[in-house]
Amino acid sequence: MSDNNMSRIKNKQNNPQRKNKKDKGKKKKSWIKRIFLAFIGLFLLILVAGGSLFAYYASSAPELTDENLLGSFSTDLVDSQGEVFYTLGGQNRDFAEANDYPEVMKDAMTAIEDQNFYKHFGIDPIGIGRAALGYVTNLGKISGGGSTITQQLIKLSVFSTERSDQTLKRKAQEAWLAIKLERQLSKEQILTLYMNKINMSGNVYGIATASEEYYGKPVEELELQEAALFAGMAQAPNRYNPYVNPEEATNRRNTVLNVMRDNGDITAEEAEKAKAIPIEEGLVNRSDSSLNSQMFDSYLVKVLEEVEEKTGLNPATAGLTIQTNIDMDAQQAAFDIANSEEYVNFPDDELQTAISLVDANTGQVKALVGGRKQEGQLLTNRATSTDRPTGSTIKPLTTYGPAIEYNKFSTYHQLVDEKWSYPDGTPLRNYDGKYVGQLSLREALVDSRNIPTARLFAEEVDRADATEFVENVGLDTNLMSKEGGLVNSNAISGTASPLQMASAYSAFSNGGNYTEPYTVSKVITQDGQEIDLTPKTNQAMSDYTAYMITDMLKDVAANYSSSVGIPGVPQAGKTGTTNYTPEQIQEHNLPSDAVPDSWYVGYTSNYSLSVWTGYDKKYEDGHWLSNKDGTRQLPRDIYQALMSKVSEGLDNSDWTKPASVSEVRVEAGSNPAKLPGPNTPESEIVTELFVAGTEPSEVSTSYGEDLTAPTGLSAQYDEDSNEININWNEYTLQDEDEKATYVLSVNGKEVSVEGTEYTVADPDSGTVQITLSVQAYGNTGPAATTSVTVPEPVEEEPEENTEEEPEANPEEPVEEDTGENDEDVEDKPDDPEEDSNDPNNPEDTEDNPSDESDDNSSTPPADNPGTNTNPETEE
């Protein structure tokens, strides 16, 4: 080796930079090794802990019996009269042997439900791991399955299918029992038990039963497309029911065919040929029993949901007696009204409706119709669906109810209907595109005017109060908007099911008491245990709110009496419609007056009834409602037909006004409310309701106030000046802008005076009668009266002439009469013209009232204790 090479080697060995890199590399490898070992240790720890937990849970797993696997106990449903009207469970289940099922059915089921069925030992470890991970990431809730057919059989036989029951403990127990079952039975036996047990929509259990119900043939004759449909239905039998949802059923069937093709169970050509067959092909008409059960199908759906939710029991297998609240007469009437042309003129079979009838005093659901012209069982229940907006039927709940309950607004409370936009700038219009200006709370609700309602909600009703009110009557505010919670637009529309609306309105009928609607009163288990499911009744609002809302909604019902009126039955209600947006109208070429939804919610003292109508596919040609063809009025027609029926023979009493409400006559247009004045025309007086203690006290003077007689009227005769001086107290009007004048009458002669005194010059002798009235607002009040006596004037006696007159000489001429001879004067006849100038004639003073104007404006003198007054006219 050369010196140069030796030198390079030494340099490398002695190079500190290269040495540091080598040390860092060693440290990095050391840390990676440590992390790897830590992960291995953590994995082993989790494995041990998981195994221990699995063993602990498995040790408490229930026993798996032949009875669990092979059979179930039927459940009886009892109506409100105690009669069994439906039996759920075992009676509609046909058991088939393994060799009865064709291979195509077995292939379809394993392809879509469990592709590794013939390979695993009862559980899918990867699926279990996925479920465990979901349990950790979802805070103790199982989010994903991985269940095998064996596990599903265990679940159907032993456990509940409710999502709330899918805990880690339950999953572990399912897995343990599945492993045990795989050791006891063959794969073929397990698959057969599963296909005999699964629900196939409604009261149909097992594929053998479904084959007869849907296709009218034994299971061994099923064809590829039929087997694929049944295999797909196992996941969601009601959703993929071909009678109810043919489009979704078709898509699900085709998915199964695609999976079978990919697995090699069938060829691509066979798959395409099967997919080309319409889903309706081969389906038989429903049996008479199916038609009979269809009458109460919507009610049945709600009953099963309620029992499972409240008890955790499976009505299809638990052998229960379920005491329902169904009124079979009402249910039959509701079904007939919705499914015939005898009561209502429906335009076509596609138009849908939802009907909910609730006992207003107990909350018991008496009848439900979730749709019309439907086929199948346990179908879509539109009566409990919340996917269609309520329109104006929400107004009493989100806006007017809270305004009365918390703000104590009267039914007269004044609002303004004028051009207005939401706080975010979105414009709002009324149904007629007009504005009416000032109007009352009652007028705004009865005429269903959007703008004053939205302004009331946005500007005067506290959002927290509105939220509390709505939730007190069972509505979910989280459904009201995309954001969750009430928003400004909820003043005029919201989201709630027809059943929720009927129940919420029942609180108005029941004095403010709310009971959650319920179809089941109690459940009796197979061992005799009674489970009471009657909910508690709560005071949702004050009785004054319930009564005042009802009183206003009675006006709505009266306005629509031709369509909802029932003789002898007091009732209240509210209409509601929703609108297409301008963009939707343009995009789908819809008529300008078309609407997608129409509602009517009304109630009596006995029942609350909610009716919705519309189309499921609301953008298709002809699938809208209109005033022109009467389809917008259909909810009212349905309401009248059913409410008339159920009200027969009942005491349909009117609501009694509680002590917390005052009925007050108010002058229309006054703001704030004022009592009518004495001259307010009857046409300008309205009777409205006020919360006791908030009644108006101020009297309106718009048409004049209640005038009274003036006080302090006195009259005094002044002998020196030969005058009567009349005085009175100044009259004060409530309206400071109005000026009072006085009408003075002296011995029947009237004069108008503005001051508080008047002088009569040279009055006639004798008793002088004086009256005085106040004049204001174009009206004259009552008079005060008094009198004064004017003495007779004292006449002077003429002096006698004592001088002796010389005797006249007849021959002397007679001097001309100068008028100075007293006797000649006395003998002269009266001159009427002189009488007319008599200063003592009171008429002279009236001929020239301007001479007294200065006197009338002077300050009245102090009362004279000697004044001759009439005490009855003084206050």
TrEMBL record:
Residues 793-855 have a biased composition (Acidic residues). Keywords: Carboxypeptidase, Glycosyltransferase, Hydrolase, Multifunctional enzyme, Protease, Transferase. Residues 865-875 have a biased composition (Polar residues). One of its GO terms (molecular function) is glycosyltransferase activity. It comes from the Bacteria. It holds the Pfam family Transpeptidase. Residues 782-792 have a biased composition (Low complexity). InterPro entries: Beta-lactam/transpept-like, Glyco_trans_51, Glycosyltr_51/Transpeptidase, Lysozyme-like_dom_sf, PBP_transglycosylase, PCN-bd_Tpept. Residues 355-606 form the Penicillin-binding protein transpeptidase domain. It catalyses: [GlcNAc-(1->4)-Mur2Ac(oyl-L-Ala-gamma-D-Glu-L-Lys-D-Ala-D-Ala)](n)-di-trans,octa-cis-undecaprenyl diphosphate + beta-D-GlcNAc-(1->4)-Mur2Ac(oyl-L-Ala-gamma-D-Glu-L-Lys-D-Ala-D-Ala)-di-trans,octa-cis-undecaprenyl diphosphate = [GlcNAc-(1->4)-Mur2Ac(oyl-L-Ala-gamma-D-Glu-L-Lys-D-Ala-D-Ala)](n+1)-di-trans,octa-cis-undecaprenyl diphosphate + di-trans,octa-cis-undecaprenyl diphosphate + H(+); Preferential cleavage: (Ac)2-L-Lys-D-Ala-|-D-Ala. Also transpeptidation of peptidyl-alanyl moieties that are N-acyl substituents of D-alanine. Its EC number is 2.4.-.-. Residues 1-26, 781-875 are annotated as: Disordered. Residues 82-260 form the Glycosyl transferase family domain. This is Transglycosylase domain-containing protein. It comes from Marinilactibacillus psychrotolerans.
